[in-house]
Amino acid sequence: MRRVVLIRPRRDGRIFGKAPGAPYTLMRLASLVPDEIPVEIWDENLRDLPLDTLKEGDLVGVTAMTVDIDRGETIARRAMKQGAGVVVGGVHATLLPEHVQTFAHSTMVGEGYFTWQQLIQDYAAEGVKGLKSVYRDEEWANLDGVAPLTDRVIQMVDERNNYWTPYMEITRGCPRNCSFCTAIRVSGRRMRLRPVDEVIDEIERRGIKRFFLTDDNFGLNFTTDPDYIAELFQALSKLDLHGWTCQSEMSIANHPELLEMGLAAHLDKHFIGFESVNPDNRRQLGGKSKGLAASAEEAIRTIRSTGIGVVGLFVMGFDEDTPATFQAMWDFIRTSELDSISATMLTPFPGTPFRQLLEEEGRLLDMPWSTYDTAHVTFQPKNFTVEELRSAYDWLCRKTYSPMQIARRGVRSLWRYPLNQAGKKLFGSFSTDYGYRRTYAYRNS
Ligand code: SF4
Predict the structure, then answer these.
(1) Whose CA is nearest to atom 2 of ligand 1?
(2) pLDDT at residue 14, rounded to an integer
(3) Residue range 116-136: average pLDDT?
(4) Cβ atoms within 10 Å of 114's Cβ, excluding its own
(5) Region 3-136: CATH code
């Protein structure tokens, strides 16, 4: 066996010379490769891939989400043609393994903590013919001591020079089961927690000062495990961090002491899934939100009053949505005190209850996976034609991401900081909205 090559297909490319987010999942998997086997991480967002160097003796692992699985397939087929052993894993492989099996020697279903090292051994022993067609984690691993990042991987990736945003994981899982979300199938229903000392050790060894948490619903832990969160915040408050962000739900507004502790722990913004301002959609929202604009506004005010920012995450195109929902959404965006806004199109990802419903009702459109970017209409809506839903969404995005609106929210966000920090926070105050504007713009490019 020559080497293990782990590949992330292109999605965003570089922005001002750096790729947007570090390949954290591949960093964890690369850390499980035994020391005696060379391992490389190839990120196509960062540079063109030297695919012509792949050959027999290489074990190639491709990870892909649904939106970039087509590019993942192209890479996998080419690597197989040149004689390498190819395994495809990640979110799409976990949700739709029968698709991935058509273009890889092996499909890795689940997190890989129980099977990845076995797969490497099988390939090292017998090459391609030693590989099973599916490696499936049958249970959710305890996160205690799982795949700590090795120093060789940390040095290889060089996050500080190559990436704008390092990612980090502290907890994993979400029991909510919102009808459109893949988290319960990809990360599990049970919330799992990494030991606080491992989290601190990893941050220190990586030398990162900022990070975005990949946790599906970090904020739910405020309610389910407040002692753990308090211990974590106490430990993080002792580090010299510039700020970090996480995905949450509005129930964190019920925990003022933890919000205060979070601020001391350098927590800068919560990305909160309000999802909708149409209460008729509440059944789709897993019990975390009732789709009431007034409750959302109150939660935003409470959280922001502690000095922490709120990015609002919203999904458009539910079956109960009508043209009036778009107007209500825009009214909310205009008048709420959010720091940034993500307005996405409902997308029927494989394995979700929403997709199952569309399949039963024959409402899935025949669209390439690359349109599963949460900015395209990929199904037949209930109260709109496809074209009407598209143009309602365009209308909302044009208004939400106009330079004037981005500037307004950016200045509001900047206002949260003491004057002597304003310079340092300038980029971060505008970049979140700018990133969402860019995502929406993909569709029209
Ligand atoms: S609360 Fe968030 S992470 Fe959990 S199922 Fe709903 S959308 Fe997914």
Answers:
(1) 217
(2) 82
(3) 97
(4) 15
(5) 3.40.50.280
Q: Which residues line ligand 1 (CB under 6 A)?
A: 174, 176-178, 181, 183-184, 216-217, 249, 273, 286, 288
Ligand 1 centroid to 276 CA: how many Å? 13
What is the reported pLDDT for 291?
A: 80
Whether CATH 3.80.30.20 fits 166-444? yes
Q: Residue written as tokens 């599906």?
A: 216
Instruction: Write down the mean pLDDT value for the chain.
Output: 94
pTM for the whole structure = 0.93
Looking at the CA of residue 216, tell me the nearest atom of ligand 1: 3
Choice among 324-328, 363-367, 432-436 with the minimum mean pLDDT: 432-436
**Residue found under tokens 């990949």:** 214
First to last CA, the chain: 42
For 295-299, which contacts have Cβ atoms below 8 Å and span 24 or more sequence positions? Answer: 295/250, 296/250, 296/332, 296/336, 297/332, 297/335, 297/336, 297/337, 298/253, 299/250, 299/252, 299/253, 299/272
